[in-house]
Amino acid sequence: MDFSLAPITERVRAAAADQTPLRIRGGGTKDFHGLALHGEVLDTRVLRGIVSYEPSELVVTVRAGTPLAELEAVLAEQGQCLPFEPPHFAKTPADAATVGGMVAAGLSGPARASVGAVRDYLLGVTLLNGKAELLTFGGQVMKNVAGYDVARLMAGAWGTLGLLTEVSLKVLPVAPGEATLRFEGINQADALRKLHAWGGQPLPLNASCWVHDEGAGTLYVRLRGAVAAVEAACKTMGGTRMDNATVAADWTACREQTLPWFTARATRTDHALWRLSVPATAPVLALPGGAQPLVEWHGALRWVQAPESAGDALREAARAVGGSASVFIAAEANKTGASGAFDLQSKALEQIHTRLKHSFDPAGIFNPGRMARAW
């Protein structure tokens, strides 16, 4: 019997009966995102620990309240990792992102365009639904196709469908070869052209970042894979090869949004951080005010700093190339108040979200208002 889960189950059952809103919270490092934070805090960090880990099978099952850093450390001891590089967004040493929060947020780091997203590595979940029923979906193998892949619905659901108690994840070995190439004095259009050309070649591309800083553009490209493939790519792609030990901190800063480009927003109190998701082949976008984005995922992710009043222009620019734009961090965002917004413009998609919400949480007690004002 899981004694740490029993009081949480009783609290969910009582909340459903009284229709008391509950705010599911792990480390709280992503409280800045979502429409609003409502309800009594239901802390998941008592659900902690690695249930099973089979390095030879590349599978780990871990309780949702386990610190993400703790899991990553255990994997590193075996030369393995979470290849999608989930961001922690810890602001202080006391902050600790959790594994459940990682899945609930569904956010991936710089390598996402090359290796896949959180949901692609999610094999199974155990969760409490809004009726306080403990449900298990998926398993511990990739070939698990009995019905719908419900487990992956939890990636990016922000706790609105249920309280995760355990997750099973596929992990991968750390790549034996790695190199980062820097291309200085390159504008955004030329950087995108290079990335598009490389994308059509058998190169071990893993991550990329183009940033315009101090009046000039710089493109960084990280290669990962077999040593021979990485070395061969370095000879043909050009650029300046950087020291792996030195540049590792820069890639972490990119993942955690602590690069100078991101932190400069603190001096612009009216600016929000916008997330533009577009096809990787999209050209340079006409952005309001001539804003220079930070470009990741080989062109597919473009971060923009702009006032929220520029929302219509940004959304139109993204939609014109088949993408979307949403506020990731609002201008006045903090850990207890204002936050980002989800871009659910499709009525059909909104209806699907609403039906799923009602099926998993009929009383609407979990994280009300986090993803949609209606629930």
Strand content: 25-35%
* Shape label: globular
Q: Mean of the pLDDT scores? A: 92
Radius of gyration over C-alpha positions, nearest whole angstrom: 21 Å
Q: Largest beta sheet, briefly? A: 8 strands, antiparallel
Percent helix, as a range, is 25-40%
Total E-strand runs: 17
What is the H-and-E element order?
A: HEEEEHEHHEEEEEHEEHEHHEEEHEH
Determine the N-to-C terminus distance.
33 Å
User: SS-based structural class?
Assistant: alpha+beta
- Summed up, the helix count is 10
Regions with pLDDT < 50 over 5+ consecutive residues?
A: 335-339
Major sheet: order of its strands?
13-10-12-11-15-16-14-17
Q: What do you see in this structure?
A:
This protein is of the alpha+beta class and 375 residues long. It has 10 helices and 17 strands. It has helices at 5-18, 68-77, 99-105, 112-115, 188-199, 227-237, 244-256, 260-263, 311-319, 347-360, and strands at 22-25, 40-43, 50-54, 59-63, 80-81, 122-128, 134-138, 163-170, 172-173, 177-184, 205-213, 216-225, 240-242, 271-277, 294-296, 301-307, 324-329. Strands 13-10-12-11-15-16-14-17 form an 8-stranded antiparallel sheet. A hairpin with a 4-residue loop joins β3 and β4 (59-63). The radius of gyration is 21 Å and the shape is globular. The two termini are 33 Å apart. Residues 335-339 have low confidence and may be disordered.
